[in-house]
Amino acid sequence: MKFILFLLIGAVLLVAAFSALAAGKKAGKAPSAVHATSVYEFTMNDIDGAPVKLEQYRGKVLLIVNVASKCGFTPQYEGLEKLYTTYKDAGLVVLGFPANNFMRQEPGSNDEIKSFCSLTYGVTFPMFSKISVKGADQHPLYAWLTGKESNPDFAGDISWNFNKFLVNREGHIIARFGSRTKPEDPELVSAINKALSEILPQ
């Protein structure tokens, strides 16, 4: 009787494990951020709520930024848009991820954020639905970006709004910049140009 009970418990646990794995894949999240090998393994919802596989940016250089509408660094939207329009034909894509983790400086809904970015700064680069970039509810993408195991050279909590991760054409982080580094900063621009100049191996 005990043997049958153990078998039943084992079967239930196995089904639960497979269900969780399937749910994770359906939601577009890597089963474990630690085990993701590139940014392409994540699927994010855009600002309108539609799923976007980051795989579609394979071969591009990405600048991933956690943004906010009511922050002292919010005017950086203007510089980010200029970077995007200047270098998009060369392969740069800026990805904006609104987050309300710091002093509630991104309190609006996705629709409000979209309207603010468009009307105030003329943002045309891809914007995504609001997520958490640190803490207990941290999104798996940011767990991967900041994790000691997944990205030891660039690990560490997001310090504030407008932290920036530069991702090369193969989906790997090659540089990280803090909030005070403006989009037009020569160091950042130089890093972008270097990444754009690199050719993918055949």
In short:
The chain has 202 residues and is an alpha+beta fold. Helices cover 34% and strands 14% of the residues. The protein is built from 5 helices and 6 strands; from the N terminus they run H-E-E-E-H-E-H-H-E-E-H.
How would you describe this protein?
By secondary structure, the protein is an alpha+beta fold. The protein folds into two domains: 1-29; 32-197, Glutaredoxin (3-Layer(aba) Sandwich), CATH 3.40.30.10. It has helices at 2-26, 76-87, 110-121, 140-146, 186-197; strands spanning 43-45, 51-53, 61-67, 92-98, 164-167, 173-177. The chain has a four-stranded mixed beta sheet, with helices on one face. Mean pLDDT is 89; it is low at 12-31.
Notable characteristics:
202 residues, alpha+beta, Glutaredoxin, 2 domains, 4-stranded mixed β-sheet
DSSP strand content: 5-15%
Enter the CATH topology name of the largest domain. Glutaredoxin
Distance between the ends: 60 Å
Content-based structural category: alpha+beta
The biggest beta sheet is recorded as: 4 strands, mixed
CATH 4th-level superfamily of the largest domain? Glutaredoxin
Strand order of the largest sheet: 4-3-5-6
At the first level of CATH, the class of the largest domain is Alpha Beta
Low-confidence runs of at least 5 consecutive residues? 12-31
Globular, elongated, flat, extended or rod-shaped: what is the shape? globular
Q: Write down the overall mean pLDDT.
A: 89
Give me the CATH architecture of the largest domain, please: 3-Layer(aba) Sandwich
Fraction of residues in helix: 25-40%
The number of helical elements comes to 5
Q: Radius of gyration over alpha carbons? A: 19 Å
Q: Total domains, how many? A: 2
Write the H/E string, N to C.
Answer: HEEEHEHHEEH
